[in-house]
Every structure is written in C-alpha cells, then in structure tokens.
Amino acid sequence: MTVYVDDWRQPATVGPVTARWSHLTADTTEELHAFAETLGMRRVWFQGHSHDRLRDHYDVTDRLREEAIARGAVAVTWRQAARARRLRRSTLAP
Asked: How many angstroms separate the first and last alpha carbons of the chain?
C-alpha cells in the first residue's frame, strides 16, 4: 500500500489558512486516514467520495506536503495521480 501527494498547489483560503493546496491520497481509505493522522490531520478534514472511493483525499498545504514526503509519501504530479486513478478504475471494473 502506498500514500501519494500530488503537486496541484492550488492557491486558496480555507478557513483562516491561505496557502497552496495539494491532495494526499492512498491505495486505500484506511491507509489514507492512518497516514493523515501521523501528520496531525483531523478526520473532519477528509474529503470522501462515496460514489468513487478512488477520489478520497485530504487537502494539504505545502508545509504538510513536504512533511508527508519526508514521512514516505510518494510525490507525484497531478497528471500521474489522475492516470493512476484511471488505471485502477479500469482494473476494478467487472
């Protein structure tokens, strides 16, 4: 199982935080939650997609992105992340 962090780096203000934001994803939602917890992230920040679990993610600031990479997350481009989702989706299809 692997945790990934993309390079989306979208400028945005979320609550009181103005930063560049990327996406933290994983091969499974359970693994994603466990890794996010090691970063000190709250479960309420999780963005779940019950209709498409491959889109489950946490948004992370640049600081958390770098920390995630230091803790073992695989840095990917946002294009690589989308390609990986499509590939996984095609292997899961009946």
From this structure: 22
pLDDT digits over 39-63, tens only?
A: 999 999 999 998 888 899 999 999 9
The pLDDT tens digits of the residues spanning 1-51 come to 799 999 999 999 999 999 999 999 998 999 999 999 999 999 999 999 988
Overall domain count for the chain: 1
Domain that holds residue 61: 3-92
Place of tokens 């990327």: 22
Q: Which residues contact 38 (CB under 8 A, 6 or more apart)?
A: 71
Contact call for residues 56 and 29 (beta carbons, < 8 A): yes
